[in-house]
Design goal:
Pfam families: TRAM, tRNA_U5-meth_tr. This protein is α/β, with parallel strands linked by helices and 462 residues long. The protein is built from ten helices and 22 strands. Strands 9-8-7-10-11-12-13 form a seven-stranded mixed beta sheet, with helices on one face.
């Protein structure tokens, strides 16, 4: 018989109050305080602050605490706009000054380069921030529910599906906030029933609104449980009347019991399925299902950095993997011989081909399919690529994609990342496979949150 493992006992007790000094922040911005070397994560607390907190959850390696009082304040602490943004998790860093947010995000990138990528020597620039770090989101997906017998819009309380009524989201385009309320009140006037998750009844699940930052064009998507929209014609007429910038009104039908917002079917109620916005001098058509960067001001900074890193001379063949509707592809095409965009979402490629025509671009081709599969096909044909640009989802690059890169060996690679941890994982593999990681530029696409995008230049070691 083996020896009995000693039962773990944390040095703190649940529901008991403690006082301590915050030593650090987690990558999600939670304050870290230690008792007998055991870390407790406290939301809303900042480094150097002495705080009182209640332990609310205990695990084997760490615990969570609820902030009760800040005894000694950090010089980086600012007054919050409203506690509701902490309750919903939409602005988890609103208590941290914006300059400190940018330092925190750079520090996170530096840490993953050191700890995960094992590349502590890579130069990492200061984060490119915003002049005004509010009102930047060009898209809203707002749940609609009944509260106290009345239709309400707002956001779910963190880790729940309890709706907190909210009309001013602070980080969304104010015009979008206004449009949500206008559409909600029109639906209310025509007695449209809000969706009930428990009974799976009701008509309207979400109001989705997208707005062109530079064009002002407005798209409204009504996500309904069934294809039947009561008093449809009156609703269409009222929304058109109240929102003169409206160019697209879509009904998306989602009959499933699911947390996924959009269903697979839709119908156009007014205009067409799309609106326009401009980026780096080009005009883009964006359908309701297509990905388009949330922060239009910072997207210009992000993409211009990627284009600058590519150092194109007009002679290069370029692959833009995970190209979406072609926003970065067309920017690269202005300075390349030819750009091939790879994208798995068919509707995005349809938008991309339309965007090529709208902007009269002749040196771009798009291919539909999984980026890793298309890359393997490319390497099998031994076709030369000079520059590879990747902008993958949060999960980063598939192992098959990395293997294809190491077989293809493009001289230069530009990696645009929305997740520092998977970025660092991939950089480690690429470095071990023969690439020098030259430099990195973080960009703050999501002020008041812990998220950060990073552009990285890699060069093939010869």
């Amino acid at each position: 018989m083996g020896k009995n493992k000693q039962k773990f006992t944390a040095p703190v007790l649940k529901n008991k109050d403690y006082t301590g000094t915050i030593e650090d922040l987690t990558h999600e911005g939670l304050g870290v305080v230690k008792i007998d070397n055991f870390p407790i994560f406290v939301e809303g607390a900042l480094p150097q602050e002495e705080v009182t907190f209640k332990v609310v959850k205990i695990g084997k390696k760490f615990a969570f605490g609820k902030l009760l009082e800040v005894i000694t304040k950090s010089p980086d602490r600012v007054e919050i706009i409203d506690k509701v943004y902490a309750q919903t998790g939409t602005m988890p860093l609103q208590h941290l000054s914006y300059d400190a947010q940018l330092r925190f995000k750079k520090d996170h990138v530096v840490r993953v380069f050191e700890r995960i990528a094992k590349l502590p020597e890579v130069p990492i620039a200061d984060v490119i921030g915003m002049e005004d770090p509010y009102g930047y989101r060009n898209k809203a997906q707002i749940p609609v529910r009944k509260i106290n017998g009345k239709m309400e819009t707002g956001f779910f309380r963190k880790n729940s599906h309890d709706l907190i009524p909210l009309e001013d989201f602070a980080i969304q385009d104010p015009k979008i906030d206004e449009a949500v309320v206008i559409v909600r009140d029109i639906l209310k006037r025509y007695h449209i029933k809000p969706y009930d998750e428990v009974s799976h009844k009701g008509d309207i699940r979400h109001i989705l609104i997208r707005r062109g930052y530079y064009t002002g064009e407005l798209m409204v998507v009504l996500v309904t449980r069934t294809s039947d929209l009561p008093r449809e014609n009156e609703i269409i007429s009222s929304i058109k009347d109240k929102l003169p910038e409206l160019v697209s009104l879509i009904q998306n039908i989602n009959p499933e019991k699911t947390n996924v917002i959009l269903g697979s079917d839709h119908k156009v109620l007014f205009g067409e399925d799309g609106y326009h916005d401009t980026l780096l001098g080009d005009t883009y058509f964006i359908s309701h299902e297509s990905f388009y960067q949330i922060n239009p001001v910072q997207t210009q900074q992000l993409y211009q950095t990627a284009i600058d890193y590519a150092e194109l001379t007009g002679k290069e063949t370029v692959i833009d993997a995970y190209c979406g509707i072609g926003t970065l592809t067309l920017g690269l095409a202005k300075k390349a011989k030819h750009v091939y965009g790879l994208e798995i979402v068919n509707t995005a490629i349809k938008n991309a081909n339309r965007n090529v025509q709208v902007n009269d671009v002749s040196n771009v081709s798009f291919k539909v399919g999984a980026a890793e599969d298309l890359m393997v096909e490319w390497t099998d044909r031994n076709e030369k690529v000079d520059v590879l640009v990747v902008d993958p989802p949060r999960k980063g690059l598939a192992k098959a994609f990395v293997d294809a890169v190491l077989t293809m060996k493009p001289e230069k690679m530009v990696y645009v990342s929305c997740n520092p941890a998977t970025l660092a994982r991939d950089l480690k593999l690429l470095h071990e496979g023969g690439y020098d990681v030259v430099k990195a530029q973080p960009v703050d696409m999501f002020p008041q949150t812990h998220h950060v995008e990073t552009v990285v230049l890699l060069s093939l070691v010869k």
